[in-house]
Amino acid sequence: MARKTSQLGRFTDVALLVLISLAEGQKHGYRMIHDIEEFSGTALEPGTLYGALMRLEERGWIEPVETAERRKPYRITESGRDTLREQLATLRRIERAGARRTAISWGLS
Amino acid sequence: MILRVIAESVLSLYPNAWRQRYGEEVADLVASRPVRVRTVLDLIGGAADAWLHHRRIPGRRPFRIPATAALYALGAALWVLWNPGVRDPQSLHRVWTEATRMGALAHTLEGMATSLFVTAGVMGALAVAPVVLAASSAMGSPGQGLVARATARHVVRTAVAVAVPARCSATSTTRRPSPVPSATRWRAASSSRPSWRCRCP
């Protein structure tokens, strides 16, 4: 997973937020920004969001939904969902390691 | 209000392929959200990123230099560099000989200038060729109007005069060398008709 997402550079964190946002259903850019701000507290700007969308679409992790509307929604693909699962598993391992080490240090002090 | 206008104009900095793919969505996003200085800076950064990673834009086409821009640039190169140089090559050579006496840097610059001169000449000739071809076909086409054919004739004549300065060059090379130093002659040339001027009809 780390190998996959390391190629995203500074967009790694934003890409994770976008994948989490799209995991519950398709959304267009405006709704994505609001959703991400709501669940993570991160206020994304359009340039950053679309930099991440471009990379995710290039990798086939998200895809645009055909619509006649001006606002084009995006949805997560199966490949994107697998990537998200792997990345969340990595984050859980990090969180457990962090919690364990923090507990040890608290115990010593 | 001003920031919104700036943000919308920043979108024009993105590559064409990006604008075709995402331009409308981002413009809509900018129009429907509050625009801050941070938004403008973010869009400028996004434009730089899109240019740097042009290959990642979905549905992009291979990058090509616009033919019109290339023709203009090459035509300008022909006009500015090649043609005046060919018309009076001795003067160019003399200037560089004087410059090389000043030091090694001038010698290096002479080599660079020669390369650029030759490149500009080739590019200039290539730039004129399609113009002449287009004008020639317009001249021979009965479907074209009188004005179009007259313009095409002018284009062909001008292109030939610019690209083939052989007669003028031949005349200028047979002139007698002037005893007046080049700087003095240059001043004289700018104030009156020079004695070494090409005598082409």
TrEMBL record, chain A:
Annotated TM spans: none
> Where does the Transcription regulator PadR N-terminal domain lie?
18-86
Recorded hits in InterPro entries, A to Z, give: Tscrpt_reg_PadR_N, WH-like_DNA-bd_sf, WH_DNA-bd_sf
- Would you say which domain of life the source belongs to? Bacteria
Query: A Pfam family this protein belongs to?
Result: PadR
Gene3D superfamilies per the UniProt record, alphabetical? Winged helix-like DNA-binding domain superfamily/Winged helix DNA-binding domain
Give the protein's recorded name.
PadR family transcriptional regulator
TrEMBL record, chain B:
**Keyword Transmembrane helix, does the record have it?**
yes
Q: According to the lineage, what is the superkingdom?
A: Bacteria
TM spans, by residue? 63-82, 112-135
Cite the entry's keywords alphabetically.
Answer: Membrane, Transmembrane, Transmembrane helix
Q: What is the protein name for this chain? A: Uncharacterized protein
Organism from which the protein derives: Nonomuraea diastatica
